[in-house]
Design brief:
By secondary structure, the protein is mainly beta. About 5% of the residues lie in helices and about 45% in strands. Strands 8, 9, 10, 12, 13 and 15 form a six-stranded antiparallel β-sheet that branches. It has a five-stranded antiparallel β-sheet with strand order 1-7-3-5-4, with no helix packed on it. The chain has a four-stranded mixed β-sheet with strand order 16-18-21-19, with no helix packed on it. The chain is rod-shaped.
Length: about 325
Amino acid sequence: MVATLVGTVEAGFNDGSETIDFGSAPTAGDWDVLYVNSNTTVNTPSGFAAGAQAVANQGAYIFVRQAVGGESTTVDLTTNGSHNTQVIWERWRGLGNRDTGIDDDEQANAAVGGSTPAYNSGTLAGSSTLFLAFGALHSIQSANQSSPVWSSGFTGNADNVHGSGAEAVRGYTGYSVVSGTTAQTPSVSWSGDGAFNRYLLAVAFAINPGATVEFDGNRALTASVTGTAAAERPATGSLGLTTTITGEADSAKVATGNLDVAASITGTAQVVRSNSVGTVRSGWWGYLDIVEEAAQEAEAERSSPPVACPNDGEPLRSAPDGSLYCPYDGWPNEGP
């Protein structure tokens, strides 16, 4: 399983809008996650979806976006008026689809406390999951909260605060890489003042859903793949191979017919496949293979001794001197 945090930014504002600069554009497939907590409501930014939200005495959100290519390096956030707002951005790589069954929250409103309320995700959809949790605090008194402690299995990523007093906000983020479908119960506690309003929001993503890599004959295709890659060839028959490659590696397997590879690959790997009869390739390379194979077969036939008479097709027989002849018309074999 591979799930990699490749970028993070913390920001805060209270003037109604803010442009968050990620520093770089995402790679196709990356997930950008925005954890936003405000003294007011927040508009869903362009290109993102609200993965989870809790709006009562504060406006807390997890906005998510999976990159397809061409996304900007920035995002604009706007609020309903000028209010304290904190933002944490994370970019995750190596994930698949979002578990849409995990988009809920637990709230404790107007009840001072030093931890987020009890939360239970219920059974997860997949067997390998990245679970992201957001502790959103509001009305944090002197804003002296410190030393956040996440529940077992979770690792804290960020602690971001904006303002102090009744309209101030703080955000804690944590994550867990989960094997299996066991329900998750994240929480975060802290030292210092309690918060009047305390929310716990969560989203989850499948890890390593698989990627399809097409191999073009015996030409090496370099593919950066994390997780399980299903390699497919347009040929009949099949031979299964499971292999694990870590780091920079060349993996070659020669077999007759189709070779289906399920490979757990970390890093960049070159995988080459061909068969022992002839290379199986697609597109124009496939047509060229057919022409080349036909020419090779014709040359093989011309250079091989005949086995039948060219006049009537009857099998040739061996003469006492070792030569071949046709018993019906006496056709002699003069050699290839």
